[in-house]
Amino acid sequence: MPDCLFCNIAAKKIKANIIFEDEKVIAFYDVSPQAPVHFLVIPKMHIGSLLEIDENNSALVAHIFEVVADLAKTLNLEEGFRVVANTGTLGGQTIGHLHFHVLGKRQLDWPPG
Fold first, then answer.
1. Which of 7, 15, 101, 112 could form a disulfide with 84 if both were Cys (CB 3.0 to 4.6 A apart)?
2. What is the pLDDT along the chain (113 residues), one digit of tens a residue?
3. Number of domains in the chain
4. Residue 20, strand partner residues
5. Catalytic residue numbers?
6. How far is CA 61 from CA 2, 17, 49, 111, in A?
7. 59 close to 47: Cβ distance less than 8 angstroms
8. Structural contact between residues 103 and 38, judged by C-beta atoms closer than 8 angstroms
9. Is 104 in contact with 72 (CB distance < 8 Å)?
């Protein structure tokens, strides 16, 4: 998707503060952090949202969560963290590319806003 912000980050056409990358995913710090630790993990392959997950790409989503777990340990988030996937307009999704926010190092209230 040529006009997709996250596709362009994955293709290194747009700079990001990358903390992890492999052949399937890329993780980078959020440009507007909502917690002392706030990064995103995205698939390099364009998937629009959680609504597009199916049997053809669900293994990729499992891999994303393995990456989240490894990064949480590396960044010392063992006391707790939150993983958020906003979906659709009412869910707060502003970029049409599947992405998971990981937030930690502060008390996160429930319910969220």
1. 101
2. 779 999 999 999 999 999 999 999 999 999 999 999 999 999 999 999 999 999 999 999 999 999 999 999 999 999 999 999 999 999 999 999 999 999 999 999 998 86
3. 1
4. 27
5. 99
6. 22, 22, 11, 25
7. no
8. yes
9. yes
The range of the structural domain enclosing residue 75 comes to 5-104
Q: Is residue 112 situated within a structural domain?
A: no
How distant is the alpha carbon of residue 70 from its chain centre? 14
Listed in sequence order, the residues at least 6 apart from 25 whose beta carbon sits closer than 8 Å to its beta carbon are: 41, 42, 43, 44, 60, 63, 64, 67
Please check whether residue 94 is in contact with residue 42, taking contact to mean a CB–CB distance below 8 angstroms.
no
Question: For residue 86, what is the domain's CATH number?
Answer: 3.30.428.10
Token pair 């659709």: residue:
88
Distance CA 58, CA 46 (A): 13
Residue 86 lies in a domain: yes
DSSP class of 76 = T
38 part of a folded domain: yes
- Nearest CA to 64 out of 28, 101, 96, 25 is that of 25
Is there a domain that residue 113 lies in? no
